[in-house]
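Re: that backbone. Tokens:
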């Protein structure tokens, strides 16, 4: 396995651990949606569960020691999951329509919003600023959901943000990143907690260095290492 591939896997495993910890903190008793109940503790089995490594062997269907234990959802859980999903679907629709008011209306007054390395912001005003700020800086942006993991009151999305940086982007310290004209395509993970029909928490995890490199604001570490 090459050094670049190793770094990628380590980075993704670290990201998954961070998201699982945050989900557990926000929803006590919850487990990561992608977790599996298998008895092996080998790292390879964890990678297989995440779909990142070919299985070395297939578990026999009749072998209860290795078969994942799946628990059926109750009707109550299904109803809760559907309600949770609706808020996230409506949120993405409002983002794509560039409708800041509809977007903000989905957040509770005490909702917490936070992205990697940034302070916690609260409430609908913060949500409104998020949409207007990013859509102002990347007017043609599109969010592509690559995977979605839903529990009764939480949603985890693996997604890609793509767009062209044609406007200034406000920074958490009150400054701004001037227009670069560069194309950005960045993966991120977003964790939502929904209660009483409103989003109560919204956490975004992304690679800040990759973001800066793509906008030409930081050197590419792999290019630097290659000399």
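Recovered sequence:
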């Amino acid at each position: 396995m090459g050094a670049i591939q190793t770094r990628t896997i380590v980075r993704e495993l670290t990201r998954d651990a961070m998201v699982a910890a945050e989900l557990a903190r926000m929803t006590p008793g919850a487990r990561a949606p992608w977790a599996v109940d298998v008895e092996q503790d080998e790292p390879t089995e964890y990678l297989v569960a995440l779909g990142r490594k070919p299985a070395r062997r297939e578990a026999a269907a009749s072998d209860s020691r290795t078969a994942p234990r799946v628990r059926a959802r109750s009707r109550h859980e299904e109803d809760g999951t559907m309600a949770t999903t609706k808020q996230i679907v409506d949120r993405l629709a409002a983002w794509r329509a560039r409708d800041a008011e509809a977007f903000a209306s989905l957040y509770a007054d005490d909702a917490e919003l936070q992205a990697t390395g940034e302070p916690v912001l609260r409430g609908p005003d913060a949500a409104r600023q998020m949409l207007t700020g990013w859509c102002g800086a990347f007017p043609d942006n599109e969010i592509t959901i690559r995977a979605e993991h839903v529990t009764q009151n939480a949603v985890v999305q693996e997604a890609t943000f793509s767009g062209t940086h044609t406007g200034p982007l406000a920074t958490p310290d009150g400054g701004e990143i001037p227009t670069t004209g560069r194309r950005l395509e960045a993966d991120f993970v977003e964790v939502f907690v929904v209660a009483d029909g409103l989003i109560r928490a919204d956490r975004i995890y992304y690679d800040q260095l990759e973001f800066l490199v793509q906008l030409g604001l930081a050197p590419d570490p792999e290019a630097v290492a290659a000399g």
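The beta strands are 107-115, 121-122, 142-150, 154-164, 169-170, 176-177, 183-195, 198-206. The helical segments are 3-26, 43-49, 75-96, 100-104, 123-137, 208-214, 221-225.
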